Model the fold of this input.
Amino acid sequence: MPHNSAQVRPATHVDVQAIQKLLNHYASMGDLLPRTRDDILKNLEHFRVIEQQGDIIACGSLENFTDELAEIRSLMVRTDIKGSGLGREIVQHLIEMAQARQVKRLMALTYVPIFFHKLGFKTVNKEIFPEKIWGICVNCYKFKNCDEIAVLMEL
Done:
């Protein structure tokens, strides 16, 4: 699928099961944290998806910590179409959302920092995000041995 035909849209209740299936596939490989159906529902307004022939093939969410800081979370593209530009489409959309919300800093924790570097993010020390560490990371099973890399874009 050429990425220029990708339509990013807000997620709806109908998408929750498909989003969870996509995220849990990657969570089972240790590439991201699993998210419960309730967590996805609670944060549904923050999710954006790309659908192709009735299937959710990519998703991502933009979640604010403060008026100044937001995070790109749950960014996933279906395995068989990775590298097709869909992740970039979602991130570009989330950056525009962050700008519209007048967020000053946009961060992500990732295993693929080069992907974010190509979009203008820089690698930073994750300790500069106490909102993230003590709000979400502290509950993670990887908290003591986190191997994700923090990236930041100043908006």
